[in-house]
């Protein structure tokens, strides 16, 4: 009696394997990009990069121990964020805003943040108030410890937090651009001593938003922006040379 032949199971196709080391290389590239981005961002907020300073690819690559390609990507990213000025065939530069540019930016912030205050007045929940106060405590800690870059970043994020609580994504996006510009103005032209009053002013804004007077809340918020504008404009025009190799020495790997 003939034996029934059992067909062998079809061989399972092996899953394509990623070339060994490919993922690691890609991850390493991302790590380098983020390290360079963080280093240049911190340098911008440190106040040590002066307005109009050229950021040469070769100089930065040598200072940060990476390729010019990595530098180019980061400079393009910061240019898209309007934190650097990119000029065709000339390269990247630290912004050198005119007094009129700065006045226009603060004017826009006053208009937008007046709307924020009106929207949030008397409507903050206990959880939101606690979140805002915790943020202000982080600001105070950064100023006290002399972490200028973190202090300026946190000061800007306070206003972004208010925009988030107002619940409008379009508003958040617009305020983020305005805050990013004014953060840079502060870093370029404001002194650490003067800027250290920001946490106190933010605490006053929180209290005012809880009531009882909307007019008072608007006055406090506008006075805060007025003072910031006056300080950065008064500080504009200070010249100082900077050595990029020294500035980025701690970020090199």
Number of strands: 3
Low-confidence stretches: 1-16
Biggest pleated sheet: 3 strands, antiparallel
* Helix-strand category: mainly alpha
What is the distance, rounded to the nearest whole angstrom, between the alpha carbons of the first and last residues?
77 Å
Q: Any guess at the CATH architecture of the largest domain?
A: Up-down Bundle
Number of helices: 11
Highest-level CATH class of the largest domain: Mainly Alpha
Count of the separate structural domains = 2
Which fold name corresponds to the CATH topology of the largest domain?
Four Helix Bundle (Hemerythrin (Met), subunit A)
SSE inventory with pairings:
Blueprint: H1 22-46, E1 54-55, H2 57-64, H3 68-80, E2 85-87, E3 91-93, H4 99-120, H5 126-144, H6 148-166, H7 169-189, H8 192-195, H9 198-209, H10 214-235, H11 244-247
Antiparallel strand pairs: 1-3, 2-3
If you had to describe this structure to a student in words, what would you say it looks like?
The protein folds into two domains: 29-96, Winged helix-like DNA-binding domain superfamily/Winged helix DNA-binding domain (Arc Repressor Mutant, subunit A, Orthogonal Bundle), CATH 1.10.10; 99-235, GntR ligand-binding domain-like (Four Helix Bundle (Hemerythrin (Met), subunit A), Up-down Bundle). 67% of the residues lie in helices and 3% in strands. The chain contains eleven helices and three strands. It has helices at residues 22-46, 57-64, 68-80, 99-120, 126-144, 148-166, 169-189, 192-195, 198-209, 214-235, 244-247; strands spanning 54-55, 85-87, 91-93. The protein has a three-stranded antiparallel sheet. The chain is elongated.
């Amino acid at each position: 009696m003939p034996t029934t032949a059992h067909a062998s199971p079809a061989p399972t196709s092996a899953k394509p394997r990623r070339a060994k080391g490919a993922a690691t290389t890609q991850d390493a590239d991302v790590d380098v990009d983020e390290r360079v981005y963080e280093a240049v961002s911190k340098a911008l907020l440190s106040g040590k990069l002066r307005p109009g300073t050229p950021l040469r690819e070769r100089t930065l690559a040598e200072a940060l121990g990476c390729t010019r390609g990595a530098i180019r990507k980061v400079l393009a990213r910061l240019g898209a964020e309007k934190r650097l000025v990119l000029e065709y065939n000339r390269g990247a530069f630290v912004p050198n805003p005119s007094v009129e540019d700065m006045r226009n930016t603060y004017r826009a912030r006053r208009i937008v943040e007046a709307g924020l205050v009106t929207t949030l007045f008397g409507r903050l929940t206990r959880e939101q108030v606690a979140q805002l106060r915790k943020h202000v405590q982080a600001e105070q800690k950064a100023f006290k410890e002399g972490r200028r870059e973190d202090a300026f970043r946190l000061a800007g994020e306070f206003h972004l937090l208010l925009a988030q609580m107002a619940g409008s994504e379009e508003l958040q996006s617009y305020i983020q651009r305005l805050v990013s510009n004014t953060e840079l103005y502060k870093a370029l032209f404001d002194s650490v001593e003067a800027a250290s009053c920001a946490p106190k002013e933010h605490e006053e804004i929180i209290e005012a938003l809880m009531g009882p007077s909307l007019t008072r809340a608007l006055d406090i918020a506008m006075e805060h922006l007025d003072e910031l504008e006056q300080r950065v404009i008064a500080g504009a025009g200070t010249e100082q040379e900077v050595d990029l190799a020294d500035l980025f020495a701690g970020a090199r790997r």
